[in-house]
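Consider the following assembly input.
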Amino acid sequence: MKKFINSVDTILAESLDGFAAAHADILMLGEDRKFIRRRELKPGKVALISGGGSGHEPLHGGFVGHGMLDAACPGQVFTSPTPDQMLAAVEAVGTGAGCLFIVKNYEGDVMNFDMAAEMADGVLQVVTNDDVAVENSSYTTGRRGVAGTLVVEKIVGAAAEQGMALRELKALGDRVNEATRSMGVALTSGTVPAAGKPTFEIGDGEMEFGVGIHGEPGRRRDALKSADAIAEEVCAAIAGDFGGRTEGPALLFVNGFGGTPSMELYLMYNSARKMFEKHGVTVIRSLVGSYVTSLDMAGCSITLTLLDDDMTALWDAPVHTAALRWGM
Amino acid sequence: MKKFINSVDTILAESLDGFAAAHADILMLGEDRKFIRRRELKPGKVALISGGGSGHEPLHGGFVGHGMLDAACPGQVFTSPTPDQMLAAVEAVGTGAGCLFIVKNYEGDVMNFDMAAEMADGVLQVVTNDDVAVENSSYTTGRRGVAGTLVVEKIVGAAAEQGMALRELKALGDRVNEATRSMGVALTSGTVPAAGKPTFEIGDGEMEFGVGIHGEPGRRRDALKSADAIAEEVCAAIAGDFGGRTEGPALLFVNGFGGTPSMELYLMYNSARKMFEKHGVTVIRSLVGSYVTSLDMAGCSITLTLLDDDMTALWDAPVHTAALRWGM
């Protein structure tokens, strides 16, 4: 295992400490590092709280700040945060207008966020499940929540910042999730520090179609394909899942899994954009980068969100977080 | 070789096309993809032009836009751009106030930018050489220009945007370069697409201290060390190179080489910050991410820039590029 670490037991704490020190103008850590919270709260605003296993950085901590999340609860690597983390976050960042949890659809996360929601007052939840690769998976009943979660957090975060009420935010989050589909491919496996070896074996000439962000199996193992062939299959899967109703404006998001450089991501974006145009998509907004990762896995996911004018305006609204920043 | 590509011959063109399509609001490509240029020019502003071999993305194209570069000339992977690329860029983005070339110190780059500077009128140059690892290297007489180049481009770019004249910009660029030192370490080698195999061999338990951004050898090959031990050695090398005069405010920049995830970079930042504090450094600005890469190499570099008030204000000034954006 080749990683920058001091000890497997302290990797999360040290990484969080570095993150909080580097972005002290935006955020700070809660007691015992239970959550990352926005430094300046906005009274009367619905609090947006997310979280999940670590190892997917910058998701979710990198999206804490003006126009996006109020708090993010980091679990251990690929392990759900515990309900007391979410409860502590609710207490710290709630300002009386209620809380919305944004939860990726994995059994552990859903269970723990549910438990916290029951114990707190005035909490609603949006569960993301944008991954079209498989219906059920290693840690999931139903579809997995993957990179599309970023899109939900950005758009709902902007609406919350503008003063939208809790029930409307929940409806908006569900609507953005419905308008969002993703699928990923892996060229290599990531390595969980505590395991010390790659999560899955994969041959030199192989790739995994439909991989999950924890290295879960996807649709199939296959020989490594060209970027165009990969994009063709992934985009067809996404367009097919939309029932072919992909004509119109959209956000195209090509996301790296942590071990793939920018040059390859832009090449994949170029291929995916051409493929989606054949499906009638007009790409009006784009995001390319490693935002929802799987440790050091080489690979990428492609996400398409069908946009209406409201969603586009909310996507464009100012955001000031460690990993996404524009308009301010 | 596991990469997202269609053909080795078209990787650069396709990646540039994707990049230009994703960021069409900021930039566009010149004819024959000779350069990436800022879409909106500012008449009367000195034009800042950089460039170099591809494979280091987002450097330099990702820094084209308001408050940073007016154009960037991409060579083939790890190969200098040709003088006609720089001449075409000068012609496209010059507005009569002169041009400043920002050039990393590699023999090919220096020769080709020199040639272009001689053929054009009103061009001055800043050559960056922030890498303290070795005095001469595979492609270099003197020190290599590495991640500190970003800092020079940001600070000089802000001053140019504010209307500073050519000679003063050249002096400022030299001053920022003098105030900046870097050193890198590699855990794995990157793979140049045309070569199809890793640039250098490195054992499972080994690392390279002082590696260059093309995988050039550094100071020594050694057993893989802890993050703290790596930071201690790198920070001591940088502080020593400053002659121990590191008391005062500074920018700490931890840069990933393309194959290292965010979690490890923040952990290294945490270690490096503590080490520099022992050298009397007060970290007042931070940057953590993969900005000056070496294809898919796992590793990172640490850069320290000693700041004065002017440099700090210019660092904070608004910037709107594909890879760095704040204040607008």
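The two ends of chain B are 40 Å apart (CA to CA). Ask yourself how this observation constrains the way the partners meet.
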